[in-house]
Amino acid sequence: MSGRRPFRRSAAGAIVAILAALALAADQFVKHLTIENLPYGEPVPVLGEFFQLYYIRNPGAAFSLGSEVTWIFTIALTVVAGVIVWKAFNLQSRLWAVVLGLLLGGVLGNLSDRLFREPGFPVGHVVDMISMPWMMPAIFNIADIFIVTGMISVALLVVFGLRFDGTRERDHVVVETEEEAEAAALAAADSSTADSVDSDDAAPASEGR
User: Fold this and answer.
1) Of residues 113, 128, 198, 201, which has the active-site annotation?
2) Is 200 a catalytic residue?
Protein backbone atom coordinates (compact mmCIF):
# COMPACT_ATOMS: atom_id res chain seq x y z
CA MET A 1 0.00 0.00 0.00
CA SER A 2 1.06 3.56 -0.62
CA GLY A 3 2.25 5.41 2.43
CA ARG A 4 0.74 8.67 1.24
CA ARG A 5 -1.87 10.09 3.56
CA PRO A 6 -5.41 9.84 2.07
CA PHE A 7 -6.77 13.07 0.62
CA ARG A 8 -10.03 14.15 2.23
CA ARG A 9 -13.10 13.92 0.03
CA SER A 10 -14.23 17.39 1.05
CA ALA A 11 -10.89 18.85 -0.03
CA ALA A 12 -11.00 17.03 -3.36
CA GLY A 13 -14.55 18.25 -3.94
CA ALA A 14 -13.47 21.80 -3.17
CA ILE A 15 -10.65 21.57 -5.72
CA VAL A 16 -13.07 20.33 -8.37
CA ALA A 17 -15.52 23.16 -7.65
CA ILE A 18 -12.88 25.92 -7.57
CA LEU A 19 -11.12 24.83 -10.76
CA ALA A 20 -14.42 24.33 -12.56
CA ALA A 21 -15.51 27.85 -11.60
CA LEU A 22 -12.19 29.35 -12.73
CA ALA A 23 -12.25 27.47 -16.06
CA LEU A 24 -15.86 28.49 -16.65
CA ALA A 25 -15.08 32.13 -15.82
CA ALA A 26 -12.05 32.18 -18.14
CA ASP A 27 -14.06 30.68 -21.00
CA GLN A 28 -16.98 33.06 -20.63
CA PHE A 29 -14.72 36.10 -20.23
CA VAL A 30 -12.86 35.31 -23.48
CA LYS A 31 -16.19 34.76 -25.23
CA HIS A 32 -17.43 38.13 -23.98
CA LEU A 33 -14.30 39.84 -25.31
CA THR A 34 -14.76 38.02 -28.60
CA ILE A 35 -18.35 39.18 -29.05
CA GLU A 36 -17.53 42.75 -28.09
CA ASN A 37 -14.33 43.23 -30.09
CA LEU A 38 -14.00 40.85 -33.03
CA PRO A 39 -15.73 41.09 -36.42
CA TYR A 40 -17.99 38.14 -37.11
CA GLY A 41 -16.77 35.64 -39.67
CA GLU A 42 -13.52 37.41 -40.49
CA PRO A 43 -10.05 36.06 -39.60
CA VAL A 44 -7.83 38.35 -37.52
CA PRO A 45 -4.19 37.22 -37.86
CA VAL A 46 -2.18 37.24 -34.65
CA LEU A 47 0.81 35.16 -35.77
CA GLY A 48 0.07 34.84 -39.46
CA GLU A 49 -1.64 31.53 -40.25
CA PHE A 50 -0.07 29.92 -37.20
CA PHE A 51 -2.57 31.56 -34.84
CA GLN A 52 -5.68 33.56 -35.75
CA LEU A 53 -8.77 34.88 -34.05
CA TYR A 54 -11.91 33.95 -35.94
CA TYR A 55 -15.27 34.72 -34.34
CA ILE A 56 -18.08 32.36 -35.30
CA ARG A 57 -21.12 30.81 -33.63
CA ASN A 58 -21.25 27.04 -33.89
CA PRO A 59 -24.62 25.23 -33.63
CA GLY A 60 -23.00 21.79 -33.82
CA ALA A 61 -19.95 19.91 -32.65
CA ALA A 62 -16.44 20.06 -34.10
CA PHE A 63 -16.42 21.02 -37.80
CA SER A 64 -20.09 22.09 -37.31
CA LEU A 65 -21.23 18.47 -37.38
CA GLY A 66 -24.78 17.85 -36.16
CA SER A 67 -25.85 21.49 -36.55
CA GLU A 68 -29.48 20.40 -36.97
CA VAL A 69 -29.62 18.48 -33.69
CA THR A 70 -28.09 20.99 -31.29
CA TRP A 71 -30.30 19.77 -28.44
CA ILE A 72 -28.51 16.41 -28.48
CA PHE A 73 -25.22 18.12 -27.60
CA THR A 74 -26.99 19.96 -24.78
CA ILE A 75 -28.17 16.66 -23.32
CA ALA A 76 -24.73 15.08 -23.76
CA LEU A 77 -22.98 17.97 -22.01
CA THR A 78 -25.51 17.85 -19.17
CA VAL A 79 -24.94 14.12 -18.68
CA VAL A 80 -21.14 14.53 -18.67
CA ALA A 81 -21.35 17.38 -16.15
CA GLY A 82 -23.64 15.30 -13.92
CA VAL A 83 -21.29 12.31 -14.00
CA ILE A 84 -18.29 14.47 -13.07
CA VAL A 85 -20.16 16.07 -10.16
CA TRP A 86 -21.26 12.62 -8.96
CA LYS A 87 -17.69 11.29 -9.11
CA ALA A 88 -16.41 14.37 -7.28
CA PHE A 89 -18.19 13.25 -4.10
CA ASN A 90 -16.00 10.11 -3.90
CA LEU A 91 -12.62 11.58 -4.87
CA GLN A 92 -9.55 11.23 -2.67
CA SER A 93 -6.98 11.94 -5.36
CA ARG A 94 -5.44 15.36 -6.00
CA LEU A 95 -4.66 14.58 -9.63
CA TRP A 96 -8.16 13.35 -10.35
CA ALA A 97 -9.60 16.42 -8.62
CA VAL A 98 -7.53 18.77 -10.80
CA VAL A 99 -8.32 16.94 -14.03
CA LEU A 100 -12.04 16.58 -13.35
CA GLY A 101 -12.29 20.19 -12.15
CA LEU A 102 -10.84 21.60 -15.38
CA LEU A 103 -12.85 19.14 -17.47
CA LEU A 104 -16.05 20.14 -15.68
CA GLY A 105 -15.27 23.82 -16.24
CA GLY A 106 -14.86 23.22 -19.97
CA VAL A 107 -18.10 21.25 -20.18
CA LEU A 108 -19.99 23.95 -18.28
CA GLY A 109 -18.52 26.63 -20.55
CA ASN A 110 -20.03 25.13 -23.69
CA LEU A 111 -23.18 24.01 -21.86
CA SER A 112 -23.78 27.62 -20.80
CA ASP A 113 -23.71 28.66 -24.45
CA ARG A 114 -26.19 25.93 -25.35
CA LEU A 115 -28.55 27.02 -22.60
CA PHE A 116 -28.35 30.81 -22.63
CA ARG A 117 -27.11 32.09 -26.00
CA GLU A 118 -29.06 32.73 -29.16
CA PRO A 119 -31.19 31.37 -30.68
CA GLY A 120 -32.33 30.22 -27.23
CA PHE A 121 -32.68 27.40 -24.71
CA PRO A 122 -31.54 24.62 -25.26
CA VAL A 123 -30.22 25.13 -28.79
CA GLY A 124 -27.86 28.06 -28.27
CA HIS A 125 -24.83 28.36 -30.51
CA VAL A 126 -21.35 28.03 -29.02
CA VAL A 127 -19.01 30.98 -29.45
CA ASP A 128 -15.70 29.96 -31.05
CA MET A 129 -12.73 32.20 -31.75
CA ILE A 130 -9.41 30.31 -31.96
CA SER A 131 -8.13 29.22 -35.35
CA MET A 132 -4.89 27.41 -36.18
CA PRO A 133 -5.22 26.57 -39.90
CA TRP A 134 -1.84 24.84 -40.08
CA MET A 135 -2.97 22.25 -37.55
CA MET A 136 -6.71 21.77 -38.15
CA PRO A 137 -9.54 23.47 -40.03
CA ALA A 138 -11.77 23.55 -36.94
CA ILE A 139 -12.31 26.74 -34.94
CA PHE A 140 -12.52 26.23 -31.18
CA ASN A 141 -12.65 28.04 -27.83
CA ILE A 142 -11.18 27.96 -24.32
CA ALA A 143 -13.77 25.43 -23.11
CA ASP A 144 -12.80 23.07 -25.92
CA ILE A 145 -9.16 23.27 -24.80
CA PHE A 146 -10.13 22.29 -21.26
CA ILE A 147 -12.32 19.46 -22.56
CA VAL A 148 -9.71 17.97 -24.90
CA THR A 149 -6.82 18.22 -22.42
CA GLY A 150 -9.10 16.89 -19.68
CA MET A 151 -10.09 13.83 -21.70
CA ILE A 152 -6.46 13.13 -22.59
CA SER A 153 -5.52 13.45 -18.92
CA VAL A 154 -8.32 11.09 -17.89
CA ALA A 155 -7.03 8.52 -20.36
CA LEU A 156 -3.49 8.86 -18.97
CA LEU A 157 -4.63 8.49 -15.36
CA VAL A 158 -6.52 5.34 -16.30
CA VAL A 159 -3.52 3.94 -18.18
CA PHE A 160 -1.22 4.60 -15.22
CA GLY A 161 -3.71 2.95 -12.88
CA LEU A 162 -4.51 5.87 -10.56
CA ARG A 163 -7.81 5.29 -8.78
CA PHE A 164 -10.31 7.83 -7.48
CA ASP A 165 -9.28 7.00 -3.90
CA GLY A 166 -5.68 8.02 -4.60
CA THR A 167 -4.26 4.49 -4.69
CA ARG A 168 -2.82 2.75 -7.73
CA GLU A 169 -3.66 -0.57 -9.30
CA ARG A 170 -0.29 -2.03 -8.27
CA ASP A 171 -1.02 -1.15 -4.63
CA HIS A 172 -4.10 -3.37 -4.72
CA VAL A 173 -2.18 -6.18 -6.40
CA VAL A 174 0.38 -6.07 -3.58
CA VAL A 175 -2.34 -6.21 -0.94
CA GLU A 176 -3.92 -9.25 -2.57
CA THR A 177 -0.55 -11.00 -2.82
CA GLU A 178 0.22 -10.37 0.85
CA GLU A 179 -3.19 -11.71 1.88
CA GLU A 180 -2.67 -14.81 -0.20
CA ALA A 181 0.79 -15.31 1.30
CA GLU A 182 -0.60 -14.91 4.82
CA ALA A 183 -3.39 -17.39 4.10
CA ALA A 184 -0.87 -19.88 2.71
CA ALA A 185 1.31 -19.46 5.81
CA LEU A 186 -1.63 -20.09 8.12
CA ALA A 187 -2.61 -23.16 6.11
CA ALA A 188 0.96 -24.47 6.33
CA ALA A 189 1.02 -23.85 10.09
CA ASP A 190 -2.27 -25.71 10.54
CA SER A 191 -0.96 -28.60 8.46
CA SER A 192 2.24 -28.74 10.51
CA THR A 193 0.27 -28.77 13.73
CA ALA A 194 -1.95 -31.58 12.46
CA ASP A 195 1.07 -33.66 11.44
CA SER A 196 2.63 -33.14 14.89
CA VAL A 197 -0.53 -34.30 16.64
CA ASP A 198 -0.71 -37.40 14.43
CA SER A 199 2.94 -38.22 15.26
CA ASP A 200 2.31 -37.90 19.01
CA ASP A 201 -0.70 -40.18 18.76
CA ALA A 202 1.23 -42.81 16.82
CA ALA A 203 4.26 -42.91 19.20
CA PRO A 204 2.59 -44.70 22.21
CA ALA A 205 1.19 -47.36 19.91
CA SER A 206 4.68 -48.17 18.62
CA GLU A 207 6.14 -48.40 22.15
CA GLY A 208 3.50 -50.86 23.26
CA ARG A 209 4.51 -53.53 20.73
Assistant:
1) 128
2) no
